Amino acid sequence: MIYSKIIGTGGYLPERRVTNAELVTRIDTSDEWIVERTGIRARHLADASQTTCDLAEMAARRALEVAGISPAELDLIILGTTTPDMIYPSTACLLQARLGNHGATAFDVQAVCSGFIYAISIADKFIKTGAAKHALVVGADIYSRILDWQDRNTCVLFGDGAGACVLTASDTPGILSTHLHADGAYHPLLHVPGTVAQGRIQNGDGFTKMHGSEVFKFAVKVLSDVVEEALRFNQLDSSAIDWLIPHQANIRIIQATAKKLKLPMDKVILTVADHGNTSAASVPLALDIAVRDGRIKRGDLLMLEGVGGGFTWGAVVVRY
Ligand code: UT7
Questions:
Q1: Ligand 1 site: residues with CB under 6 angstroms?
Q2: Has residue 260 got a pLDDT over 90?
Q3: What is the DSSP letter of 235?
């Protein structure tokens, strides 16, 4: 049996840190409202010169360095993003060129905030079937560019960043299981309606539209279902989970999932206060932070989960 093992993680946040206090000077909101409803206190925003590929490259190089793998050894690069640099080529191909890799399979995955969960699940299948040996999996988004900064319902929630991990084929676990779902019927609840034709955005604009409270309820429900599905599949009791690494959209959604798992909050990796929702970067950034600060140790059992526009959602169980 071939497993995929995480042998390196990396993360990158743009330098500029924007606190709730700074947002209060620009829109009709308050630090109290944002903290109480979401748990977010600050977020990092890319500057105008930075691209999603720039952020991805920083995170990827850090992950490769820890893994001790050179870019040339990669045979698979999958990048989850909703804010690609170009319509085409994929940001994964742009990243491949930056890293100086030639010939690996490289493509983007569009699953919004579940982008990394989708990407690592696909990479796992390539490795399990013997189609790849060393995979780079990245979640990167400059989500701030698809926000209307006058819309207080959405702009306070998101931030920019990138997270990455390197997977290698191993005869010991490894990723134990992956569970992906989607239901496109819910797409009106969270979407960016615009499309490009005749050189312009058509059919609406390029800003995020969200029905927050419906998204909230949907997220709580499907995350509870998918973590239970993942436990059942592995015949595990939730007490076996050492760390929950959730998508960092809202502290109240995270608390609901932890409660469902009967996990105390000190077993949950939290970055939401300082990063906000970094979309596809959220889970790998949280993973990287907890690996680097020594909380996550070799042998620990991890539950990764995410939910996003589509709707898409999923979970990954990993013996780290
Ligand atoms: O990865 C998935 C991406 N999205 C999410 O995960 C978002 C999920 N949803 C949420 O996190 C929450 O629904 C929100 C944080 C977006 C909103 O929290 P809520 O408790 O569901 O509030 P609400 O939508 O019921 O809005 C309550 C009030 C409204 O005022 P009225 O109509 O009751 O007078 C909003 O206009 O809060 C108002 N409001 C704000 N007030 C101050 C909305 N945004 C703000 C704001 N500052 N930034």
A1: 29, 33-34, 37-38, 113, 152-153, 156, 212-213, 215-216, 219, 249-250, 277, 307-308
A2: no
A3: T
Burial label, 160 (beta-carbon count in 10 A; 0-12, 13-18, 19+): buried
- 307 Cα nearest atom in ligand 1: 1
Ligand 1 mean position, distance from CA 2 (Å): 44
The pLDDT value given to residue 277: 98
- State both tokens at 209: 């539209």
**Full residue range of the structural domain in which residue 190 is found:** 176-319
Same-domain check for residues 252 and 293: yes
Mean pLDDT of the chain: 97
Residues 261 and 201 in one domain: yes
- Count the Cβ atoms, other than its own, within 10 Å of residue 255: 16
Q: For residues 43 and 93, state if they share a domain.
A: yes
- Averaged over 13-26, what is the pLDDT? 97
Contact 298, 275 (CB under 8 A): no
pLDDT at 24 over 90: yes
| Residues labelled catalytic | 113, 247, 277
Domain count, the chain: 2
- Closest of 28, 11, 7 to residue 290, by C-alpha: 11
The whole-model pTM stands at 0.98
Give me ligand 1 centre to Cα 149, in Å: 15
Euclidean distance between CA atoms 161 and 179, whole angstroms: 24
For atom 29 of ligand 1, the residue with the nearest CA is: 153
Smallest CA separation from ligand 1 atom 25, residue: 213
pLDDT in tens, 75-114: 999 999 999 999 999 999 999 999 999 999 999 999 999 9
pLDDT score for 296? 98
Query: Atom 39 (ligand 1): residue with closest C-alpha?
Result: 153
Determine the residue of 216, 248, 282 to mutate for testing ligand 1's pocket, defined as the one with the most ligand atoms within 8 A of the Cβ atom.
Answer: 216
Instruction: Kindly report the CATH number assigned to the domain that includes residue 282.
Output: 3.40.47.10
Q: Which of 153, 191, 313 to mutate to test the pocket of ligand 1 (most atoms within 8 A of CB)?
A: 153
Residue in the structure block whose two tokens are 């390197």? 166
265-282 confidence digits (pLDDT tens):
999 999 999 999 999 999
